[in-house]
Amino acid sequence: MTINKVNTHIVPIEFEYHAPGSLDEAVGLLERYGEEAQILAGGTDLIPQMKQRKAEPKHVVNIKRIPGLACIEETPDGFRIGALAKLRAVELSPQIKEKIPLLSEAAQSIGSVQIRNLGTIGGNICNASPSADMATPLLVLDATVHIYGRDGAKTCSIAEFFQGGGDINLGRGEFVTGFTVPFPPVGAGSAFEKVGWTTFDIATVNVAAVVTLKGGKIDHCSIALGACSPAPVRGVLAEAALIGKEPSAEALEEAVEFIAACVEPRERWRRAPPEYRRRSSKALAMDALSRAIERARRFP
Amino acid sequence: MFASDMSLPNMLYGRVLKSAHSHARVKAMDVAGAEAMGAVTLTPDEVPDVVYCPRLVSIPEATYRDWRVLTDKPRYVGEPIGAVAAESEEEAQRALEAVEVEYEVLGASFDALDAMRPEAEAIHERIYLEDDLLDVESNVGCALDITEGDPKALEDADVVIERTYRTNRRYHNQLEPKSVLVRPEPDGGVSIWSTTQTIHNTRLLIHDIYGIPVGKIRVYKVALGGSFGSSIHVNPVVNIAVGLALKSGRPVKMSYTREEDIRDHCSYQMIFKLKLGANRDGKLAGGRLEAYLDIGAHQIQAYPLLGCVVGWWVSLYKLPYVEYTGKAVYTNKVPSCAFRGYGNPQITWVVETMMDELAGELGVDPLDFRLNNYIGEGDLFWGQGPSVKSIIRSCGVEEILTKGAEMVDWYNRPKAGAQTGRFRRGWGVGRGYHTSSAGAPVPSSIVDFGGAMLKMNEDGTFDYVSALMDHGCGTQDAHVKIVAEELCVPVEKVNIIKADTGTTIYDVCTHASRGVYSGGGAALKVAGKVKTQIREFAGRILDAYPHAVRIRYDEEGDRTVVYAEGIEGREVTYREVAETARHKNWGTVSALESYRQPSCPPHFTGYFIEVEVDTWTGKVKPLRVVAGADIGTVINPLLAAGQVHGGMAQGWSMSLLEDTPYDPETGDLVNGGSIANYKVPTSNDLLDLDDFTVFFADTYEPTGPFGAKGLGEGALNPVAGTVANAIQDALGVRFFELPITPIKVLEALREKEG
User: Fold this and answer.
1) Which of A173, B307, B613, B625 is the most exposed place for a label (fewest CB within 10 A)?
2) Which pTM was predicted?
3) Residues B505 and B479 in one domain
């Protein structure tokens, strides 16, 4: 009788709360409790899920006391962003705004300021929602996921990390500590686009794109689409259609025709029928590519 | 302090046990598990066997009754069938989950037209009207038919359009979910702090249900976190909490979660079949309206609403022939109640949509067509239904429409439907009105009077005491201004006193946009009486005639002075008047008065809205809004403009976003009760303030306090029609169902353009 259980106000279930102080301590807890444990990394997804009883963990492992997990650091390869970096911090970081504005733009599109002050980039990715707004920028930038487990640290590409249907590539006891987000190629223009029913809404479709121009032709193009497939996906056919072409309106129109073939919206997703997602993903791809090209053109 | 924020020592937290089925009989309920946890429980057989209507605004002859505090025959998913109370909300929730219920599941209907089919399961077999027990046929809870004029007028019309429309079922989404705190008192009474628009009707209903003497029930005014009509009736949670408090002998607090609140109240979904005829001379010939109101599982104010729907319809434009048949139909859904506009936004959307269509058929400009047919000054007005008739004494329709048209350069707007690109723009016009109160020169089926007390303090300031609730719209602020204006004092000299049912006289309810006009009328009446007494006492002190003394505010001395003009030394301050009255034992300058307005003047509104439609995503964006309102004298210009902004936001949301459809498989809301799946626009989704102009017509309502009328509902009513007309202008597509979602826009465009 879920009617008398589900709400977004009361957490009546009992659980044990853990706040490990080190990576190894966290791994120990996660290994010991396995499926019964859930990581708390901000709580904007987990806590409502517990109130709605979609998650009833016996153990909640809050990783906020582990040092260094909220970092935002510029390295020669790009930005190292800790799993616990607040979405608001990603949005406002002057270095990110300057070097990878796409991340800042995507972070800014999420929920409200209150949500972004609590929610983290690691939580946004590990909640594994097909509509996660940080996922498409990480995909187009070929980000690396840093994972920690019993055997220490390892990495995995973001494309391999999403396995579709809400699954992510983590073994027992493993958790995400952060991401390395490479700088876009020199002279790149980028853009993030999203359609929801309101500005506070989660995405019905979101799109991120990165483009560079060389000799008046598209040299590099990457585009990713969220909320229109079981996991965020790259629009590889559209990318291939554009590379080497002049960025004309006709070329763009031809390229976005391939978008429908890249996405697989599900019938059972109630927010919008597949046909709507197919059509609007094409529209948003056009918007994102056009804006990215326009920005790339500004590069001298 | 809101009811949701309050707490008392030794207080229990209550939770409601909700039906898991949309229609069922509760065969058995086992509360042993909950009680073993130490919780207090309440079952249907433990509440008084009283069938009531939670809204006490209409007279008994117009009030159908089909509610119980807790039912053993739930008629919608979420209907309260039991309750528990425990030491904390978490414990109460665990106790709630330990209650076991056995149901016999019955058939259910989720659409008004389906529910009327002969094979549909009866939702109510019998309901009460006064002492009569009435059989319910075809799930029709009540009905109203009205015909006026000669049918030939419509039959002979040059142009006739007939269409079917369906509105959405909107959740009020007020900030504060329904909440109550009840304290049982040693004398057998109860004290109540609750989310309500009417403390006196709350007291009366608790008296009716629990038989507690009226004077032992004290309902306190607490700030209300928004309502939009959802607490005109006494919310079910209040009646349940009283039962828990009486049983446990302890204070009980109950605050609905958002999921409970969304399954507690919503607007009336309406299905209309409208036929309107017009002649080549640009005049309307008549109309026929069939209205099916989906009222959900219980009646709150269905019968009065049937009267208002026809009233709203026939009071928009002059119709020589009117034929109306209205049916209020039970469905197995959340009970519908008033929602800002009380059916008016729904019917106005339909009429304003069809006015544009008719204008198109006649080849006249839609604005001119409206100007040629509207009901205005000197005309008979019965917006509040056939029992509430009065003559319009002030009207700004022409000013609103002509001035607005100038501001947007209406007659030079781009040609409709000429655009082919991705982004297409369109302009819409729409107008409407709402009544200010339900006053009338003769008694009607609606109670509409209020009252207030005003006394002069010993320092020459005033205490104002009224039962009238403020929803957060500044109603009390308006009263203070009215009192201060009448008494020539700055607003700071008038205190609003916290009050309850024991310290106030009756006020029906803050609804029907009556706060300023009707409530303010009572404020002006007591202020006038107090002023007369001040003149009397000052006259005695000054040895002057009371009717001859004058009153002025002396800004430098920050005092109000009563004086005999032109005669040196004959002046006395308010403070001196009050002091003298005390020292000489004349008594307190004070007044306590009930007041009934003789009329319910319409406040008129008109909108001009420009939209842009993205034909690739189906999203509609507002570009520019010009809104005019005739509210008589504007008491607080900023708050009044704020009402218009709020009306636009809510109307925009009604047009494009909101609905609460049901899943027939589960019988529950498709959105699962979550507001994460029930979207309303934020400020980011609306316009820049620079693109939103509000202006007020220069009018004066002779029956209103200082010439004022209401505004709250009229600010909303024309918006959906205007937005729909603007979308039609942009796309050349007309929609007959609300909301006009991006999904529907794309579907319609695909049908039209492939």
Assistant:
1) A173
2) 0.97
3) yes
